[in-house]
Structures are given as structure tokens and as C-alpha cells.
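Lecture 7, part 2: worked example. A protein chain together with T3D.
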Amino acid sequence: MAYETLLSETMDGVLTLTLNRPDVLNAVTDTMLKELHGAFREAERDASVRCIVLTGAGRGFCAGQDLNAHGGAADSPRPSVGDHLRQGYNPLVQRIRTIEKPVIAAVNGVAAGAGANLALACDIRIASEAASFVQAFVKIGLVPDSGGTLFLPLLVGMAKAAELAFTGDRLNAEESLRLGLVNQVVPADAFMETTRALATRLAALPTRAIGLTKRAFNRAMMPHLDDILAYEADMQTLASRTHDNKEGIAAFLEKRPPLFTGQ
Ligand code: T3D
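Predicted complex, written out as C-alpha cells:
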């Protein structure tokens, strides 16, 4: 299948999806969201796919929502931020969580905003030494979305989640490992090989049992995921109406520090 924003390769039962907008650290457009939905839908139906790897081209994993779209350049006209989450990001997170096959995030570089939280939605995270995680939302006056308000405290605990979400500080790979955000950190030159070895191993195990285990983990650890995603969209709608959101986006696009007023 040919995509505009993704590279797709299947080998030994492993589907590797590579986000492919390296010039903007694989920031997400509507086209990318649609293509990811389609790719996961196909993977769900295709019995020959028994493990999925999500990674990024170039030096980034994914920088979250393409902020040029907010300036009207990329995917206009835009729905409201809340509707955008309800129609785009939330169903993608639900798909990653409900596909009954293991999904590995191969975090090759920076994962920011929704890009970080899409990685957190995956079952396992392998980080390159070059990886980092940023809950970038606060820097543009937004709240964590794409399941981040659930996945982050679940993985690192409430106090650290609050620190990361409130400050937007960047976590490097070693710190991410120490906090339990990633399963392992691998030197950059061995990164894809190590990821591929794990994915190939998982793809050769009893897929149905793994899928049912995932279903049971979902029920045990995140039975209210749908409600939480819907609530995040409501909170994001409120945050998107603030002056600080407009200022944060303008500052990012103009490459200057933001001046937040609390309004
Ligand atoms: O709107 C809705 O629908 C609601 C949904 C929201 C979901 C979200 O994800 S909101 C959060 C959006 N993402 C961000 O706020 C992250 C913005 N990016 C950054 O903070 C930084 O780029 C990083 C921390 C990710 C990486 O920093 P650094 O210094 O390693 O790289 P850089 O120089 O900032 O970025 C490299 C290029 O990518 C640069 O372009 P240039 O100058 O080379 O032409 C930069 O503008 C571009 N880029 C990075 N992130 C984005 C982006 N372009 C568009 N959108 C981005 N998100």
C-alpha cells in the first residue's frame, strides 16, 4: 500500500510503519492521521501481520500535531480542536489499544505532544539513545491529549506525571528508562536491529493469546479509556479558547519565547 506520509513494510509477520515527514520531525497532519487509521485497520484484518512497529524517519519520532495547520497552512479548514481529537487522534489511540496484536513504539528520536502519547499508547517502547519525550502541550497552552492524562500517570506515577505535564520538560532516554516510560534503551547503531529482533520474536508467538492478554490488560488498567479520551477533548476545547494557547502557537511559529499571561 502506498502512502503519502507513511512508509510501510511487512517482513516475517512484522508490519513496520514509519512516520515520514522528517523535515518537521514527523509532525501529524490530517493525511497522516487518516493513513495511520487505514494502516492499523488493514493490520487488524490481515492475519499475516502478527506484530506492528511504529517508528519515525529522520531524527524525530513524532512532534505531535503539525502546528502549521493551526496557522492555516497544512490541513485547512480545521474542525474545532475538540472535534479534531474526537475524530482523529482518539479513534487512533483506541485502535492501537484494541488491535489484538502487539504494538511496539520504536522511539528513534524526540517524541512530543500527541507524538509522545501515541508512543505511550503502544504496548512496548524501545528507545534509541537519541530518544526523548516531551509533554509539549503546556508550552502552547494546551493539556495532554491522545490518552496522555491516563498513560503518563499509569507509567510514571501521579507526581512525576504532574511535573512533566506542567513543565513540558524534555526527558532523555536514560531518564525515561529510569521512570519506567520505556522498556529498554538501545545504542542508536543497534536500535532498529534490536527492535526488529523483538518484533520478529513476538510475531512468532501465539498471537491470539497475546491479543487476549492485551484485552485483559486493557480491562484491568484502563477500563475507562473511552471516557478519558472524550474528557481530554472537552478540556482541550477549553484550553484552545485561551489567549495563552494562541500566544503559545504564535510564539512557536515565530520562533520566539512565549509570553503567557494566565488568560
Ligand atoms: O490541534 C489539535 O488538533 C489538538 C491536538 C493537539 C495534539 C498535539 O500534539 S499539541 C502539541 C504539538 N506539538 C508541539 O507543540 C511540539 C512542537 N515542537 C517542539 O516543541 C520542538 O520542535 C521539539 C521539542 C519537538 C524538538 O525540538 P528541536 O529543537 O529538536 O527541533 P526544532 O528545531 O524545534 O524542530 C525541527 C523542525 O521541525 C523545525 O522546522 P525548521 O525550523 O527546521 O523549518 C520546527 O519548526 C519543525 N517542527 C517541530 N515540531 C513541529 C514542527 N513543525 C510543525 N509542527 C510541529 N509540531
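The chain has ten helices and ten strands. The pocket of T3D is lined by residues 24-25, 27, 63-68, 81, 84-85, 110, 112-114, 134, 136-137, 139-140, 142, 145, 236, 252 (CB under 6 Å). Keep this in mind for problem set question 3.
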